[in-house]
Amino acid sequence: MLPFEYARVTGVDEAVNLLAADPSASYLAGGTTQLDLMKDGVLGPERLVDITRLPLRGVTRDADGLHIGALTTMEELAADPVVAGELPVVREALLLGASAQLRNMATIGGNLLQRARCRYFRDPTVPDCNKREPGSGCAAVRNTARMHAILGVSERCIALHASDLAVALVALDAVVRLHGTSGSRSVPLTQFYREAGTSPDVENVLLHGELITGVTIPPLPAEAATGYLKVRDRASYEFALASAAVVLVMRDDVIAQARVGLGGIGSKPWRSLEAEQVLTGAAASGEIFREAAAAAVQGAWTVPGTAFKVELAQRTLVRALRNVSGGAR
Amino acid sequence: MSTVESRDVRGSRDAAPVIGTGMDRVDGARKTAGAAGYPSDVQLPGQTHAALVQSTVAAGRIRTLETAAAEASPGVLTVMTHRNAPRLPDGPMTALGASPPAPLRDDRILHHGQHIALVVAETPEQAAAAARLVRVTYDTSDPVLGLDDPRAERMDNPWGMDADRGDPAEAVRTAEAKVSGTWTTPDNTNNPLGLFATVAVWERDALTVHDSTQWPTMGRVTLAKVFDVPESAVRVLAPYVGGAFGAGLRVWPHVILAALAARVLRRPVKLVLTRAQMFTSVGHRPSTVQHLTVASTGTGELVALDHRCTSGVAMEDDDFEPCAATSALAYACPNVITRDVQLRLNIPDPTSMRAPAVGQGNFALESALDELAHSLSTDPLELRLRNYAAEHPGNGLPWSSNALRECYEAGAERFGWSRRDPEPRSMRDGDELVGYGMAGVSYPWYAQPCKARATVNSDGSAFVRSAATDIGTGTYTVMTQVSADTLGIPPGRVRFDLGDSDMPQSPQAGGSGLTGALATAVRDACRGVLGRILDLVRDDSESPLRGCTIGDVTVGGGRMHLRGRPAEGESYADILARHGQVEVTADGASTPADAAELGMAPAGAFGAKFVEVRVDADLGVIRVPRVVSAIDGGQILNEKTARSQIIGGTVGGIGQALFEETVTDAGTGRIANATFGDYLVPVNADVTQMDVLFVGDPDRATPLGTKGVGEIGLVGIAAAVANAVHHATGTRVRSLPVTLDQLL
User: Fold this and answer.
1) Of the candidates A1, A231, A236, which has its C-beta nearest B126's C-beta?
2) Are B404 and B491 members of one domain?
3) Of A174, A196, B273, B578, which one is least surrounded by beta carbons within 10 A?
């Protein structure tokens, strides 16, 4: 058996203290990643701290932006009137992710922390996985890897961060609020994740015991337009082969501001400052979109199974830019 | 065009026939209420639970196998391995080939995912947890995994079906047009939604097995041989099966392991496969490499067809996949060569998956014909019509039925094929390139002997049964209809039962052959009962039916009367009461049609598939908004369940065309995508508008005029999609699945 202790907490400090004191403990929220990985034998926490009763659920708005409690479910956030009315990029990213059943269980905090879908990571009978067993190698690199990443990866690990929502959130300059034993801190989502680099097992800056309590999306300029485009084989219930989250502020034909997030291709939800640099201040056109897209995939590292993503990601971004800019070709 | 031609093939009857009508499934309410007991629902007193341990290498030998930790794990009752399990004989030959090898024979590993131990515990969780504690090391050898591996043992013409007609080489050489190419199809996994489950229990020396099977009769015969007990001591039950698509056609090693553990422990053992184990334990559609040449005159009359197919098979198992051979029977063509080859690989056992062989072979053939049509600037539909086989291409006999031309015409009309601009990449809607593609299907005829038993009870109700299965196809329902019509008893007073090997023998639900065999046997049994009831009143001075034969009477409303004289008759209940009978029972049987005897070639179903695809011009995303399937299925017994069969097949075809590919890791032979998140099948959003038309007349080779429709729904979709993708984009994809990265 896989014996573990189950503890249900009602206060944030109680949760953080419990977890910080126990190196083998993990939080349990929606469970859609955590429990799968335990059943697959990838994770074996000795204690699960159930945080679903913590008062971290719901969406509020003030001058600093939209504050999303970490335990808000994906469906709840998609249904939020502000999100539905003003942040199509968030709503689209949410509703194109997972399935309705999963979205009803999965929380926003958990979504940001979802683990790689890599079938080599998720199968303990595969000996070589640097994410699971640091130093053991990477089986995905030499096998079929169509769903894997091309940015922020190397021969050490090509696992994809498969979240759609996080791609939208990095484009929106969202900030995660963390709470630990030494208090609270805020980290921009773009600095929250780490590229696979030399330590694919370390995916973000969370310290053990630290808890995501919420996410803040700063206000957008009133004239900003946003959109999320997801490209995949089947029409529903599949992770992105490529996706793009785009925020544009247009002044006539000129792109005054651009923010670009890319999904389906990165070891972390990918923010492309390179693409933004090309776009900002330029007149919207197909040509400039293609130039931005080319800049976005500079440095791609591919294996035969993922090589097509270099082209697909660019076309996806070009299409998303066209859609959000109002159709410039 | 969706009407079903009807002919009086049902004998004389009073009430409006229920055959042909779209009667609701008789088991529908039970299924939707959760009251239908699938094998995984079975719970027996004292039941134990088993979990499999599978090899994590593809070839070699077990070096060390440590079971002590598992044995000491809470709740564990036994851990069976090749070291302590009794050696069992292999199962017998079946109508589909040899049985899979017996499990736990020795220390050899033949494929990744091979069962190497069975852990039995008090709960499923204890068993699963203990299974993880079994430690195995291997002396591995380099596995033979690919169809391109020169080390693979090669078997030529394994089914004796290679075809040779005329001089294809010379015909190709002198042909005015030809297309030659290589098409490939990947491994596909059957993946029924219901996880396969076995519950085995021994009572004294009798074995009862609840199993996810399509063939209880064969299960009984096999288990009796393997466990060396009389067939009369074995009972296999499968009243409900959560889909199978061919995966339930064999007695798999895990079934034998469950029965073996139950005998060792003297307690019931339940084993439910995990989704990942479904990829390695119950078969799959094997990958193929197909070289095909089609050659024609300048006006598209085929002069030569050369189809050579290589597929994989497990190291010590059989599989029936004559992909090339089926091409020889599809079109009128004077010069034909087909060659099928199997290679032995370190892979899990392939087995039939909906439309075995035809599903792969048709993709290559119908793709090649599309290319030929394109090269000749001929409409692909016109090319098929020009090469229509008016007689059976193999034996030259007239078909017992063939409405393939009507399929083309009706399907094209419904689809709007005439709106197709023949130029590739010429039809566009915004960002989407629009393509129309089509394919023809000539499905092989298949039949097996079958038996059934019918009873009329003292209250005039009926009970009819056979050891068949209903894997979601509608067998319960259509056989209720056949029984009701033949006996003249309303369907609500007829119970048709199946899924029990104690019932009269039935062939498998497979090969699109069950309905024809079973309906004929059911009708024969019901007519036998009518005859026996007439026997009762032969000398009965009180009966207006005295001295009548079955030809003299009409049935309906639970009674019989003299033909044309409704007042002169009586109810079954009255007859049985007067003669002191509680029930009257008769057996019925059917045997496959004999072509020589008939002077006709018994025909399978025919079909024409028309598909619209939309391909995003930049992104390559492929969607199938519309499919029209025109099917000649002979006499349709139930319009609704038959339509559902075609729709279900179409969904499988879309899966084969666009999504499904079982990925095996080079080197280790591990299946890399053994989850429903990674092995893609169509979801609802991928299957939008699916039209089904039934055309044609009742078939002349079967008493009820039926032809099987279980598999034809799938066939042709892959080629039609690939052909439509070419029409949309100008890109030919000869390798399944067709995915967006091939179109960038």
Assistant:
1) A1
2) no
3) B578
The mean pLDDT of B222-240, rounded to a whole number, is 98
| CATH at residue B537 | 3.30.365.10
B56 contacts A119? CB cut-off 8 A: no
Strands A25-28 and A47-50: parallel
Within-domain flag for B336: no
The total number of structural domains that make up chain A: 1
B693 has pLDDT over 90? yes
Residue B603 has pLDDT above 90, yes or no: yes
Which parts of chain A sit beneath pLDDT 70?
A: 328-329
The token duo for B687 is 């299957």
Contact: B740, A316; criterion CB under 8 Å:
no
Nearest residue in A to B741, CA atom: A308
Identify the pLDDT of residue B9: 40
Q: Which two tokens stand for residue A208?
A: 């053990």
Nearest residue on chain A to B679, alpha-carbon basis: A238
Q: Is residue B493 a part of any domain in this protein? A: yes
The span from the CA of B669 to the CA of B102, in Å, is 21
- Is the Cβ of B68 closer than 8 Å to some Cβ of chain A? no
Q: Name chain B contacts of A147, Cβ cutoff 8 Å.
A: 678
Are residues B736 and B639 part of one domain? Answer: yes
Q: Which has the closest alpha carbon to A271: A290, A254, A285, A258?
A: A258
CA distance B329 to B443: 9
Tell me the sheet residues that pair with B399: B601
Model confidence band, residue B176 (pLDDT cutoffs 50, 70, 90)? very high
| Residues forming a β-bridge with B430 | none
By annotation, the residues of B acting in catalysis are 711
Tens of pLDDT, residue by residue over B605-634, are 999 999 999 999 999 999 999 999 999 999
In order of A70, A150, B286, B579, B586, the CA distances from B530 in angstroms are: 72, 73, 48, 15, 9
From chain B, the residues in CB contact with A233 under 8 A are 622, 658-659, 680, 739-740
Q: Angle between the B358-375 and B717-729 helix axes, to the nearest 10 degrees? A: 30
| Sign of the dihedral through C-alpha A216, A222, A225, A227 | positive
Token pair for B619: 């992104």
Residue that finishes a domain, picked among B539, B557, B592: B592
Residue-number span of the structural domain to which B539 is assigned: 28-36+448-592
B152 φ/ψ sector (left φ>0, alpha ψ -120 to 50, else beta): beta
Query: CB within 8 A of A169, min separation 6: which ones?
Result: A90, A112, A189, A215, A217, A261, A269
Residue A192 maps to a domain:
no
- pLDDT at B7 (0 to 100): 38
What is the domain range of residue A241?
225-325
The closest CB to that of A311, out of B686, B739, B744, belongs to B744
- Measured between beta carbons, the chain A residues lying within 8 angstroms of B656 are none
Instruction: Kindly report, residue by residue over A280-320, the tens digit of the pLDDT.
Output: 999 999 999 999 999 999 999 999 999 999 999 999 999 99
- Has residue A152 been placed in a domain? no
pLDDT at B673 over 80: yes
Q: Which of these three, B534, B566, B592, is where a domain ends?
A: B592
| Interface touch B658/A139, C-beta < 8 Å | no
Q: Is B740 on the interface with A (CB under 8 A)?
A: yes
